[in-house]
């Protein structure tokens, strides 16, 4: 019986990888902390395995065949190196996870389009989902640990209930979902969104530290709002922290 196509592609790749390496599950289990049954389930295609199990599957074969002299499929011409195999496996796993979660249609959001807290919450959620929704502890470990990004805060961010509390949390989240960058654009968008959700005094302080391109535009906008408020043209509602 044919299962979900992306899950099936992942399972077929894993089984082909093992078969072309010419190793058994029993042999593989001697090199990693997993039983033959666990390794076999990883490639069975019954459900999407955890990413660490998929990585473990490759690690076992790599340990047995230190110099890979086999060809897995036509997408990897010639003797594949472990880095290319890992990338291929991660791509297949990510699509299988998104298929499982029903998020294949979710697209990454360009940070330049983010202008308010709601848009930032959605953009960060989209990054999380397009990365295959890794376990929260995995994101935390890849980031900077629990002191900077507590699980409770992380859970609220990836469920669109909150935005990062500071730039350290933002960077930790980006690193945690595999987007290893400290993009000034992301920081600028976070600054702008955060400024719209806090008090005028705090917003003014934050905007002074924003990247130049965003700061010049947003400081001007903030001053216009401040003047309008002083003239009684607008009134600010209760402070929001979401």
Structure description:
- The structure is a single chain.
- This protein is mainly α and 242 residues long.
- The chain folds into two domains: 5-101, 434 Repressor (Amino-terminal Domain), CATH 1.10.260; 111-230, no CATH class.
- The chain is 58% helix and 0% strand.
- It contains twelve helices and no strands.
- Helix 1 (5-21) runs parallel beside helix 4 (51-64).
- The radius of gyration is 23 Å and the shape is elongated.
Broad structural category: mainly alpha
Strand count, sense and barrel status of the largest sheet are: none
Name the poorly predicted regions. Answer: 67-71, 215-242
- How far the N terminus sits from the C terminus, by CA atoms, comes to 46 Å
Estimate the mean pLDDT confidence: 78
Radius of gyration: 23 Å
Quaternary state reads single chain
Shape: elongated
Number of helical segments with 4 or more residues = 12
Order of helices and strands: HHHHHHHHHHHH
Number of domains: 2
What is the number of E strands? 0
Protein name: XRE family transcriptional regulator
Pfam families: HTH_31
Organism: Streptomyces globisporus
Architecture blueprint of SSEs:
Blueprint: H1 5-21, H2 25-29, H3 36-42, H4 51-64, H5 82-101, H6 117-130, H7 136-142, H8 151-158, H9 167-176, H10 184-195, H11 200-207, H12 212-230
Helix pairs in contact: 1-4, 1-5, 4-5, 6-10, 7-9, 10-11, 10-12, 11-12
């Amino acid at each position: 019986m044919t299962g979900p196509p992306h899950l099936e592609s992942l399972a077929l790749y894993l089984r082909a990888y093992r078969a072309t390496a010419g190793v058994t599950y029993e042999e593989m289990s001697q090199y990693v902390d997993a039983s033959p049954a666990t390794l076999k389930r990883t490639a069975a295609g019954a459900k999407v395995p955890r990413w660490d199990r998929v990585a473990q599957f490759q690690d076992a074969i790599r340990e047995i065949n230190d110099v890979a002299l086999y060809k897995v499929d036509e997408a990897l011409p010639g003797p594949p190196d472990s880095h290319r195999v890992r990338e291929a496996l991660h791509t297949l796993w990510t699509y299988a996870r998104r298929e499982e979660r029903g998020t294949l249609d979710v697209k990454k959001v360009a940070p330049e389009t983010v202008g308010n807290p709601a848009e930032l919450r959605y953009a960060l959620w989209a990054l999380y989902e397009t990365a295959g929704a890794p376990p929260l502890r995995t994101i935390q470990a890849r980031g900077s640990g629990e002191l900077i990004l507590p699980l409770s805060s992380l859970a609220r961010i990836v469920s669109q209930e909150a935005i990062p509390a500071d730039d350290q949390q933002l960077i930790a989240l980006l690193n945690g979902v595999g987007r290893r960058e400290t993009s000034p654009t992301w920081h600028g968008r976070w600054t702008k969104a955060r400024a719209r959700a806090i008090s005028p005094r705090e917003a003014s302080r934050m905007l002074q530290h924003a990247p130049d391109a965003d700061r010049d535009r947003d400081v001007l906008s903030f001053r216009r709002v401040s003047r309008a408020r002083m003239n009684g043209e607008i009134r600010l509602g209760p402070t929001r922290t979401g």
